[in-house]
Amino acid sequence: MSSAVYEHGGNGRHENVTFLTNEQKVAPARRASIAVGVFVALMVVAAVVGFLVWLFVVRSKELENESTFHKHSSSTLVYSGQMKLLKLEYSPVYDDPNSKEFQQVARDLEGIMNNTFTRDPLLSKYYTKSVITAFSEGTLAYHWSQFDIPEKDREIVPELSEERVVRALLRGIRQEGRQAGSIAVNVSDITASSTDPRMAREPRSKKCFYSLMAESTNKEFTSPGHPRLYPANSRCQWQIRAPKGYAIIVKFKSFHIEDDCANDYVAIYNSLSPDSTYAITKQCGLRPPTNPLEVVSSGNIMLVNLITDVVQKTGFRAVYAAIPTIAAGSCGGSLTAPTGNFTSPHFPSFYPPLLDCTWNINVPAGRRIKIEFSMFRVKEPGVDTYRCHKDYVEVLGKKFCGERRRLVLSSTTNSLEVKFHSDESYTDKGFRIIYTAFDPVNPCPGQFACTSGYCIKKEQQCDGWNDCEDMSDEKSCKCDEEQFSCSNGLCRPQYFVCDRVNDCGDNSDEEHCDCGKAEERCGDGACIPQEFICDGKNDCADGSDEVSCVAAAGICNDFSFICKNKQCVNKVNAECDREEDCSDGSDEQGCDCGVRPYKHNRIVGGQNADVGEWPWQVSLHFQTSGHVCGASIISNKWLLSAAHCFIQPDSAYKITSNWLTYSGLRDQNIQDGSVQKRTLKNIITHPNYDSMTNDYDISLLELSDPLNFTNTVHPICLPAPTHVFSAGSACFVTGWGTLREGGSVAQILQKAEVKVINDTVCNMVTEGQVTSRMMCSGYLTGGVDACQGDSGGPLVCRSDVGEWIREITNI
Questions:
Q1: Residue that is last in its domain, among 416, 438, 460
Q2: 306 and 249 share one domain
Q3: Judging by beta carbons within 10 Å of its beta carbon (0-12, 13-18, 19+), is residue 336 exposed, middle or buried?
Q4: CATH value at residue 422
Q5: pTM for the predicted model, two decimal places
Q6: Which tens digits make up the pLDDT trace of 593-610?
């Protein structure tokens, strides 16, 4: 959405025009770590295929093209907003659209707006009608106006802007208001913003409209039919009011709306009009219980809209209550303790609009103050994070906004002021600050002090990784003889040189790596003569010299994707790329996998996983030993794991009755209703498994009873035998393995980021132990990796189109 605001008189709060776009972005992830993990791989996948049963769900083009905002706006434009009526005394009778008082004032205002637009030389050509929808204390009148643009005049749409509408309203309403017969109208503030026409409703329309009064005790409202599916093409609205002097808090206990916010969404406003000038947030998707949506108004009104198309989900259940306005906006204060913390109001709920808070921190003389944001989300659509001209946190004279994974700031004296400002539109989760007084002579006792004030372990200095995030830990480092000195001062292992991955960050490790003039590089970095390219023979070990060759189209080789009708496709990663390469469409079948129903922030390696973040992860329990190995869901009846979990000197590991599987599990100590426990019917280990080399370390597990796919239980995608995992690409290992060598298994499911390592480099490190059925992943210089107890669990990599594809972890 976009908005324009024009105000005159009064407080002068809106003297500029502001454009907003309703987009949200996600924050970056952290690097993970050490060691080489060897993972079992692609060629055995063909043996698995016969056991897989996949349901392919395709959404037709008709549904994909249903009612986005842009399709509505191409023929119909709606502008909604509010106006302040200075000479009309507010009365509760105006809350009822059926009262004669409401209808009289609404009729007069609509007449004035109608005259205004019909006299405008441009707007009059397309103007349809104006509607007054509500009144509130202030006295504020809420309105919308509709303009219909014929196909032949589509190019005129940019001229029908919010500014043009606001100027016309301001001029026309004042002129008409002086002559109004039944009321003396004097308007001070007028807003109008472009609005999804699906949110425009008549004030007396009863279809899916609810007027709610908030009180101090919680009340509930739900989407239609919840917990069943909401109706298709719903246009629902909840007007919530509270007594004077109170604000409104709404907490969504469950929330499942279609993923695409252009089609289905919940939009919440600090107003009784869907005016983006006063938008609090617009949300869609499936929210996990660990990340609920909670919003607070600045005053005693709030508007909640539900807009849907033909795709149906379960919707939401929400509770609402009235809270004192002072409590809603209370923030700031004086802090004198040597350590402490504070947050934005209502954290981790969304902070209210229209806030100005100041915290003053004072510590003993001779000390300095370090503040670290453990959470920072002050995002607003369309805001330049370098200017931060809307919502912001201000420290040491600099404004911060957007989303940051880490933010550490230090004072130069023993006092520090932290300011927080939110304007009237769009709020977010806010922030949490931990502050500490420190000795400026020794700011990080026993650790390395980053320039920002952040403290890291001494061994992380000059380890080749930007742990400080400002590179201060990697400056002035001396590389040893086994390291490559990057142009930017980083030290990287010599193995990384010319591996076709930009490990230095400035690409200096990949310079001067070209093959000879008459040579070409293979995908694994080897050089071959140019005449070998597309000669019908696999001269590169990875077959990259014959991939995507025109002459090779339809010709089968070891690196071809084979369709169900035996047609061969010579294209890298042809399966599930949302393009039909097979004439029978089989390359795009069975692709309803590798999807996480819950929405999550981007992954940060080496930490607790969230609920439903890895829905294909399974915990295998052996007898009374608890968690022993991991597995992955590949269908509702089959799991994939490692052979070595079951081939042990003790034959008891091959007995199915000794095992239990737990799907949808996050915490080993909490097995609630979302966890699905199953027994094993069959254990099939690969007959060629070699315990000395770990070759063919794969097993199939058949469940006694099928799984029910839910938000926390979902299958992972298996790659085609020819799938290429590019060196340097980020993948993730998950499991309940030990957090350190010799330690106990983790209670909470862990996740860690690793990267795919070039086969040539991996064979050098492992002295040739990697077979064609394996791939290497990890970090050669140390850090987080899979540990004992992660065996059999997934190594997952995300495809170009977003699905997660798995390998098997071997420890």
A1: 438
A2: yes
A3: exposed
A4: 2.60.120.290
A5: 0.70
A6: 888 887 665 433 347 888
